[in-house]
Amino acid sequence: MAIERTFIILKPDAVQRGLSGEIIGRFERKGLKIVGLKLMSVQRELAECHYAEHKGKPFYNGLVDFITKSPVVCAALEGPYAVASARKLMGKTFGNEAEPGTIRGDYGSSRGMNLIHGSDSPESAKRELEMWFKAGELCSYERAVDAWTSNSEDRG
Ligand code: DAT
Ligand code: MG
C-alpha cells in the first residue's frame, strides 16, 4: 500500500519566523493531503518520548529545550509514498548542508534550528501519529483532486 500517512512538526523557529503557511503550502502543492493539523505547546515529557532514540547524545537536551520553547504546528499528511516524499521536500538534516529547493535548504543554515521534523519510515510515522494526535483529530476524506495526484499503480 503506497498511500501512506506521515507526521510533520513545524518547529518553533518555523512558527516564530512566520513560515508555517509557506511550508505547509509546499506539501499541499506536492499533492499531499492534510488529514490533521494543530498548533500546540509541547510538554517536555512528549518531547522526550518523541526524541527517545537520541537520548544520551550530546545534542539531546538542547533539542528537547528547543522544541518545548515555543509553540509548534503538527501536521498529518497523506498521499502516495508520503513518508519518503515529505523527507525529500524537507532536505538533509542540517540547514547548512540541505540542498536549495528543499525546505531546510531554502530557509535556514542552522544545524539545530532546522525548521521541521518529518517521520523517517512508515513505522515511525505510525508511532508518532499515535503519540501526537488523538484518534478523533485525524480526518479521512476524499478530494476530487485525489484522482489526479495518484492512480491505481500508486495505491498498490
Ligand atoms: P532528522 O530531523 O533529519 O530526522 P535526526 O533524527 O538525526 O534528524 O535528528 C533529530 C534532530 O536532532 C535534528 O532535526 C536536529 C537535531 N540534531 C541531530 N544531530 C545533531 C547534531 N549533531 N547537532 C545538533 N543537533 C542535531
Ligand atoms: Mg529523525
Quick tags:
156 residues; alpha+beta; four-stranded antiparallel beta sheet; 9 helices; 18% strand; binds 2'-deoxyadenosine-5'-diphosphate; binds magnesium ion
Report what the structure shows.
This protein is of the alpha+beta class and 156 residues long. The chain has one domain (3-148): Alpha-Beta Plaits. The chain has 9 helices and 4 strands; from the N terminus they run βααβααβααβααα. It has helices at 12-16, 20-30, 44-50, 60-67, 82-90, 103-107, 122-132, 146-149, 152-155, and strands at 3-10, 33-40, 72-80, 116-118. It has a 4-stranded antiparallel β-sheet with strand order 2-3-1-4, with helices on both faces. It is globular, with a radius of gyration of 15 Å. The N and C termini lie close together (5 Å). The model has no long low-confidence stretch (mean pLDDT 97). Bound molecules: 2'-deoxyadenosine-5'-diphosphate (DAT) and magnesium ion.
Unreliable stretches covering 5 or more consecutive residues: none
The rounded Rg comes to 15 Å
Q: Which structural class do the helices and strands define? A: alpha+beta
Kindly report the average pLDDT value.
97
SSE string, helices as H and strands as E: EHHEHHEHHEHHH
CATH architecture assignment: 2-Layer Sandwich
Q: Can you list the strand order of the major beta sheet?
A: 2-3-1-4
* CATH class designation: Alpha Beta
CATH topology: Alpha-Beta Plaits
Number of helices: 9
Cα distance, first to last residue?
A: 5 Å
Strand content: 15-25%
Q: Name the helicity range.
A: 40-55%
Question: What is the CATH superfamily label?
Answer: Nucleoside diphosphate kinase-like domain
* Multimeric organization: single chain
| Main pleated sheet | 4 strands, antiparallel
Q: Which cofactors or ions or other ligands sit in this model?
A: 2'-deoxyadenosine-5'-diphosphate, magnesium ion
Shape: globular
